[in-house]
Amino acid sequence: MKKYIFSLAVIAVSMAVFSACEKKVDLDDPNRIGDGSPLNPFKVATVADLKRVASDEIGPGGFKWESNKHYRQVADINLNNENWNPIRGGLSTVGGATSWFKGSYDGDGYAISNLTITGENNYVGLFGNTDGVIRNVRLSNVRVSGKQHVGCLVGFLWTGGTIEHCSVNNIEIYANSYLGGLVGSVYNNATVNDCMVTNGTVTGTLNGVYYLIGGVVGENVNGTIKNCYATVDVSGQQKVGGITGHNGSNGTVQYCYATGNITSMVIEVGGIAGTNVGKILNCVALSGQIRKTSAGHLNVNNRPVIGRIVGSNTGTISNNYARSDMALTANAVAFTLGAEASLAGVHGATVYETDYYGANSGTWWSGTAGFPASEWSFGADKLPWLTTFE
User: Fold this and answer.
1) What is the CATH number of domain 2-23+76-86+95-386?
2) Residue 1 — very low, low, confident or very high, per pLDDT cuts 50/70/90?
């Protein structure tokens, strides 16, 4: 019964975000156009407007919609499952990264629904590749496939780029590698903050090598992932994690939790990250099951490369927790935790339901786990939710 209630709560938290009343805008209002400047961004109200973003096309009012301009969504947009060409910049080629979206896009809390992307291209998402700022985007009902650097929102987030206050809900996403529910790859001081990925699956396909698969980000190299959570199931061949498949050198994952089941077919699987070279701090793994399905591939201690927090670690891990009844299996055999079940171990310290989702959850997350009240809200018998969202 407790597990059933726990599942309902996860769904309820996720669905509440997308239950806001539909918002309207006067499409004939000449003041809605904008000029692309920070104080008067281009207004995006229709499918045609969204397709024009960063295209270098001349839009209403005679302005060129360039990749370094500023945009704000002003209405809900239904893409009707038409095959979407990712926003990249006017000179980009399909499947390449020859140009970037360098401006800003503010979704302003409006929905973009029924996004579909098919094929085996690289740098795939609503935005293919960017080093700009994307905030307040709400994606729902997303079906995406690609080859490498694939995410529902962004395929590749580059130097100094920022994604904040964004969500994706009800997703099916497939790719060979560098695959995340929100972002495929995060590099060079780019930041993902205050985001969530809810309901669905993130799957490494069977076409070739498939690795670095994460519920939020596929790979995080020298970037920061903070204040995020994922409720999706994640699976792939190697380096598979509930938040990120790989947290690289100088990468940071902090104040995050994941609840979906995590599966690696070969090696390196963890509730938060498959592998870690950087820092994983103040994270909580709440997956019901983490498993490695094949034989072999042992670590230096002759143990399978699997962990409640991280599968393989050569970086820093501190103040992390994992649910007490998590099923951890390697090659269909139950895994014994040993001394690595500690705040600084690959399995994290054990936390019981009464603390993370019971009578004490209103204080445990902010006190013991250290989640910041500036970003999170807490309550008894609940998982924490991001204050940005309803």
Assistant:
1) 2.160.20.110
2) very low
